[in-house]
């Protein structure tokens, strides 16, 4: 059991939405049971429709049973957690409807307040304004914003400016749940605590880097949202860009939030903006057609519920160049898609070939070393090396081996990314959250690609559901004499 942390009220706006049930409430259940959330702290969910306290508790119980990992729901633990649950009806647009929330929060006016806006971004500014009008924003308030913030730089500025009228930048926590994944944080540990990695991490030794986030699922009933955004806005502008930053950034001068974020933003500002011909040659967009998933037939993007006609990409692959001293000449290949063959998220650092091989004529070729950081489905870090095949053969023969760098897990329950991040907001530690300038720099780069696509510089390709994406993505990397790591 750990020492309990700050006493606070956590208010989830959109408290009966998909994210709240799938991720936020399960995370808070664990934090509470593991002693990270004081039992006096309250979890207040806002809803549109009134229901009794009992109905609310029954609903949360059933959702936790559905979404907690197997064996995690324990009735006894839930009985304790339910004492922390409160529900209040708020209609975001109606000022009077905030009265109930005001009454509840004023029972403990001195507490820290975490306002989690698990709503469409269009409501971010409005909710913040209402909170301010009701005098519910204090020095001890924080606001958490879900990604994507806006659809481009312009709309993200409008939203951020509105929020910043009522909260200071230091009170705004822009969440990207990839930063809460343990293996993602491990990138910094790996890079900055291992002497043998440090001198190899640059264009002298690294040939290229691949970042893949492939999902086997489709849009899972989120058509309304997804069709407005697509793979670049939903995944690349945030999750993949953040991974790229952690891999590419210079060592920060400390682990203080701003030191880390200063280094990340420098990477984003060094991304080479694409010209129209770059967009044509270095980007691929595609939509899935019918195919199969887990052996079952599945409809194409335009054949399922919801969408009939759309130019929204469900897959994107891009070559990204970073114009700075460390990475000059080292391409970063990014790809992400829905309804791919398998769920697989990984970062592959591919090192250069040996300058000369003394084994070349002896029937053994040397494969390039790779560092493979897998985030999903199973977290792992592997270093791919060469060594000798044991035995007495006359000629020395080589084989590929893999060194596993995984720390043994001595934990009953492995915390989910949202647990880490919610705990950081409770502790008021913004290191793993995106600062305004990071979000803007990432939009500035992606806007150029999206505008090129809107001008039809690149045709929309297709791929069958359940495959590795369109052949154009293979050609994208093959054109540079390379191939995707698909082991
Ligand atoms: C979300 C996207 O941010 O990340 C979803 O909106 C996507 O479309 C999800 O499915 C993937 O998260 P994870 O942690 O399952 O890789």
Can you offer a commentary on this structure?
The chain is α/β, with parallel strands linked by helices. The protein has 2 domains: 3-146, Rossmann fold; 181-412 and 435-478, Dihydrodipicolinate Reductase, domain 2 (2-Layer Sandwich), CATH 3.30.360. Helices cover 33% and strands 21% of the residues. The chain is built from 13 helices and 17 strands. The chain has helices at 18-33, 53-67, 75-81, 99-105, 124-133, 153-163, 182-192, 223-248, 257-270, 276-282, 417-426, 436-454, 471-478; strands at residues 8-13, 42-47, 85-89, 112-117, 141-146, 172-175, 206-214, 283-289, 291-293, 296-298, 315-320, 332-337, 344-351, 370-376, 380-388, 398-404, 460-464. Strand 4 (112-117), helix 5 and strand 5 (141-146) form a beta-alpha-beta unit. Helix 5 (124-133) packs parallel to helix 6 (153-163). The mean pLDDT is 94. The structure holds 6-O-phosphono-beta-D-glucopyranose.
Question: What's the helix and strand layout?
Answer:
Blueprint: E1 8-13, H1 18-33, E2 42-47, H2 53-67, H3 75-81, E3 85-89, H4 99-105, E4 112-117, H5 124-133, E5 141-146, H6 153-163, E6 172-175, H7 182-192, E7 206-214, H8 223-248, H9 257-270, H10 276-282, E8 283-289, E9 291-293, E10 296-298, E11 315-320, E12 332-337, E13 344-351, E14 370-376, E15 380-388, E16 398-404, H11 417-426, H12 436-454, E17 460-464, H13 471-478
Parallel strand pairs: 1-2, 1-4, 2-3, 4-5, 5-6, 7-12, 8-17
Antiparallel strand pairs: 7-13, 8-11, 9-10, 11-12, 13-14, 14-15, 15-16
Helix pairs in contact: 1-2, 1-11, 5-6, 6-12, 8-9, 8-12, 9-12
């Amino acid at each position: 059991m750990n020492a309990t942390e700050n006493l606070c009220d956590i208010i989830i706006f959109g408290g009966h939405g998909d994210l709240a049930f799938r991720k936020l409430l399960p995370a808070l259940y664990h934090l509470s049971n593991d002693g990270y959330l004081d039992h006096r702290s309250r979890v207040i969910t806002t809803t549109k429709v009134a229901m009794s306290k009992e109905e609310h508790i029954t609903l949360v119980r059933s959702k936790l049973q559905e979404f907690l990992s197997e064996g995690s729901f324990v009735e006894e633990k839930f009985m304790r957690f339910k004492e922390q649950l409160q529900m209040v009806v708020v209609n975001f647009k109606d000022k009077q409807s905030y009265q109930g929330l005001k009454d509840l929060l004023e029972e403990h006016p001195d507490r820290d307040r975490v306002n989690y806006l698990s709503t469409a971004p269009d409501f971010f500014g409005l909710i913040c304004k209402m909170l301010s009008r009701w005098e519910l924003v204090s020095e001890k308030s924080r606001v958490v914003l879900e990604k994507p913030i806006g659809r481009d730089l312009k709309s993200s500025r409008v939203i951020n400016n509105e929020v910043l009228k009522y909260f200071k930048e230091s009170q705004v926590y822009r969440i990207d749940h990839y930063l809460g994944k343990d293996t993602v944080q491990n990138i910094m540990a790996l890079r900055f605590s291992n002497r043998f990695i440090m001198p190899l991490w640059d264009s002298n030794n690294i040939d290229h880097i691949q970042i893949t986030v492939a999902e086997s699922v489709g849009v899972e009933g989120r058509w309304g949202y997804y069709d407005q955004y697509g793979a670049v806005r939903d995944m690349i502008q945030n999750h993949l860009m953040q991974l790229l930053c952690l891999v590419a950034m210079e060592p920060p001068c400390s682990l203080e939030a701003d030191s880390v974020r200063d280094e990340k933003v420098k990477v984003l500002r060094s991304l080479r903006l694409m010209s129209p011909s770059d967009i044509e040659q270095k980007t691929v967009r595609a939509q899935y057609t019918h195919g199969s998933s887990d052996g079952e037939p599945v409809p194409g993007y335009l054949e399922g519920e919801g969408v009939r006609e759309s130019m929204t990409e469900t897959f994107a692959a891009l070559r990204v160049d970073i114009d700075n001293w460390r990475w000059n000449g080292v391409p970063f290949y990014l790809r992400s898609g829905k309804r791919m063959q398998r769920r697989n998220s990984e970062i592959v650092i591919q090192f250069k070939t040996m300058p000369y091989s003394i084994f070349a004529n002896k029937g053994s070729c040397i494969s390039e070393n790779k560092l493979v950081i897998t985030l999903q489905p199973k977290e792992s870090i592997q270093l791919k090396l060469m060594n000798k095949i044991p035995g007495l053969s006359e000629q020395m023969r080589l084989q590929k081996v893999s060194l596993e760098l995984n720390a043994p897990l001595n934990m009953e329950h492995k915390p989910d990314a949202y647990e880490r991040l919610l705990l950081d907001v409770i502790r008021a530690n913004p290191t793993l959250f995106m600062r305004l300038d990071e979000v803007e720099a990432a939009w500035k780069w992606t806007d150029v690609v999206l505008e090129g696509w809107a001008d039809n510089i690149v045709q929309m390709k297709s791929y069958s559901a359940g495959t590795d994406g369109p052949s154009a993505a293979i050609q994208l990397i093959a054109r540079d004499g390379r191939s995707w790591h698909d082991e």
